Structure formats: structure tokens, C-alpha cells
Amino acid sequence: MHHHRAEHWVVVAGTAKVTIDGDIKLLGENESIYIPLGRRIAWKTRGKFRSI
After folding, report:
1. Is pLDDT of 9 > 70?
2. Residues 48, 42 contacting (CB under 8 angstroms)
3. What range(s) does the Mannose-6-phosphate isomerase type II C-terminal domain occupy (predicted)?
4. What is the pTM of this model?
């Protein structure tokens, strides 16, 4: 859980599955997501290559 900051993540390569408080989003290259302060998050790489 993010207690001290909000974050903005951008996938620059690969794909990712992001879960924010149970809401699942699939992201690809050049897509981004905002993580508000106080949310539970999980980030998983999808596919053969890792996401960065």
C-alpha cells in the first residue's frame, strides 16, 4: 500500500498487469497509469519479456 506518495507509472517496454484495489488493468508499451495515495497495488509482468 502506498502511504507516503502517489505515483505515475509508464510502461516503456513489454506489457504489465496492474491491480489497484482489486481493479485490474492491462498495460502495453507507451501506456501509463496513476496510482493514488493510499491504494493497494500489485504489478506483474505479462508474457515472455519483463516490463520496464
Report:
1. yes
2. no
3. 1-48
4. 0.73
